[in-house]
Design brief:
Shape: elongated
Strand content: 15-25%
Structural class: alpha/beta
Distance between the termini: 43 Å
CATH class of the largest domain: Alpha Beta
CATH topology of the largest domain: Alkaline Phosphatase, subunit A
Helix content: 10-25%
Number of helices: 11
């Protein structure tokens, strides 16, 4: 048995309760340090919250193509909404009438709807389709790693060896529930932990006796190391979850709302976790999807009400906690439903469907067009694909998390180009490290604030003499990071600070060797917090 298989069979070791690894903001007096904290931002701050809608959501009953209403009414007469009840996002497109909260987010510029999301040759099996969405594979391909696991593998190399540490003291990803999503599976092990109760006390099995010699002993030592790291995460989660309280009064009763309450507390408490995943089930609506004669009511309406009200409350909560600008959310389901309804007042497995992205920094609106509904579609007619879901994933990684195109190609080989999903003002500048920049550039250090190590990245258009130095607020040089000739291209250098907390300045001076007149001087502010 190899290490991966051993870890997979030991998966319950990483199913934990939850925590917040940070601080809540109190009424501090003004200072240059706090002013810097208020103005500095980096992709390392950013959070992705995924809402998985298990079962295959009926997109045509959630986002209604009003310009196709006549044909759609004929195709699904026993489940079709009354047109007058639809919440209009535009003259041609509207939301289910129960989704008043999502409509408010749309009107407030915090919701973008993407039409017709699927992939080539889609699969209509729940298990296989879910696997495709979570791994980012082609329909005829089986991957052993998740798309987010591959992202986190590259962001945090060698994990779990050396973790937690001062740069990343918290879980890389958190699944609210008892089982970690396959989407978080890395090359060797899961990159996330599962959390059910932030304040539960867990005993992680490990033992204190010496492991036996040989391969079995090596594996046991490795598992104990992971268990010890996990216990640190449990303690931090419990401590952090007590630092802040939910501030929104809008949360409905229900599992999804309870999951998002936990996520809001963890983010609001300062946890550095990059990805959260929550779930809502029940979308496999083969029968009794609506109430006959009152099609705006029924099981699907109840699910959409939970989805809309819970996300609206979550957005309200993180706004009140002061962290909404750092959070991007996305809904997804393994497939949509067919155009025609069935005789059981339900809908059967389909393909394409809309999804939502929500948050303060989305590019609001509707991406794509309404599907064209034939007047007499066959029973197996489906919504065609307009957008490959992996282009949405790639856009999030590139424009929200700042992943370079070179690395992005390794995570999602099918990714082609970014979609207009993130507000232009919030898009993270991405440098392709395999190319030579057109001019000199000094990027903001990452992470920032930091303790005690940060990375400074810079680009050179030609072979240059480079001097990279760190100064304190008094203008005193505290360290020289680089003082030599360097090749054209992008470069990185780490600085481990051995100075006190405060504001520092990274100053770069570069002169092209072949053209001494080509000179560059730039300074970036850095904040060290110990």
């Amino acid at each position: 048995m190899d290490r991966r298989e051993f870890l997979r069979r030991s998966a319950p070791v990483t199913a934990l309760p939850f925590f917040l690894g940070g601080f809540s903001v109190q009424a501090y007096g003004r200072s240059r340090l706090l002013d810097a904290l208020a103005t500095l931002s980096a992709a390392s701050d950013r959070v992705l919250v995924l809402v998985q809608m298990n079962g295959g959501n009926d997109g045509l009953n959630m986002v209604i193509p009003l310009d196709q209403y006549s044909a759609l009414s004929t195709a699904r007469s026993n489940v079709m909404l009354n047109e007058s009840l639809v919440l209009r996002m535009s003259p041609e497109t509207g939301l289910h009438p129960i989704m008043t909260g999502m409509k408010d987010l749309y009107d407030g510029g915090r919701l973008v709807t993407v039409q017709g999301v699927s992939y080539p040759n889609p699969n209509q099996s729940h298990f296989r389709a879910t696997d495709i969405w979570l791994t980012g594979s082609d329909s005829n391909q089986v991957l052993q790693t998740g798309w987010l696991g591959r992202f986190l593998d590259r962001e945090y190399p060698n994990f779990p060896v050396g973790y937690p540490n001062t740069d990343m003291p918290d879980p890389l990803a958190v699944q609210i529930g008892s089982v970690v999503s396959p989407g978080l599976q890395g090359q060797n092990l899961s990159m996330g932990v599962a959390v059910t109760n932030p304040n539960a006390t867990y005993t992680i099995p490990g033992g204190s006796d010496d492991p036996p010699p040989g391969p079995a002993g090596d594996e046991l030592s490795y598992i104990r190391q992971v268990a010890q790291q996990t216990q640190v995460y449990v303690d931090a989660i419990r401590t952090a979850s007590n630092r802040v309280s939910n501030l929104s009064t809008l949360y409905p009763n229900g599992s999804l709302a309870n999951q998002l309450r936990i996520v809001a507390r963890l983010i609001g408490g300062g946890l550095k976790t990059r990805v959260y995943i929550v779930n809502i089930g029940g979308f496999d609506t083969h029968s009794s999807q609506v109430v006959s004669g009152q099609t705006h009511l029924g099981s699907h309406a109840n699910l959409l009400n939970q989805l809309s009200a819970s996300i609206t409350a979550f957005q309200d909560d993180i706004r009140l906690l002061g962290v909404s600008d750092r959070v991007l959310g996305m809904t997804f389901s393994e497939f949509g439903r067919r155009i025609r309804s069935n005789a059981s007042v339900g809908t059967d497995h389909g393909t394409g469907a809309p999804l939502f992205l929500f948050g303060d920094n989305v590019n609001p609106g509707i991406v794509g067009v309404n599907p064209v509904i034939p007047f007499n579609p066959p029973d197996n007619a489906n919504i065609p694909m307009q957008f490959d879901f992996r282009n949405i994933y790639g856009t999030i990684l590139q424009n929200w998390f700042g992943v370079s195109t070179t690395v992005l190609g390794q995570i999602l080989p099918t990714y082609r180009q970014a979609m207009p999903l993130i507000a232009p003002s919030a898009i993270t500048e991405v440098q392709d490290e395999s190319r030579v920049p057109e001019g000199f550039v000094l990027d903001q250090n990452y992470p920032n604030p930091f303790n005690p190590t940060t990375t400074v990245s810079f680009g050179l258009p030609a072979v240059s003499r480079v001097r990279l130095e760190v100064y304190n607020a008094l203008g005193e040089r505290v360290e020289t990071l680089v003082d030599r000739e360097m090749d054209a291209g992008y470069h990185r250098v780490n600085w481990t600070a051995r100075v006190s907390s405060g504001m520092y300045f990274c100053r770069m001076e570069a002169v092209a060797v072949s053209n001494p007149g080509q000179r560059y001087v730039e300074t970036r502010k850095m904040v060290l917090m110990k």
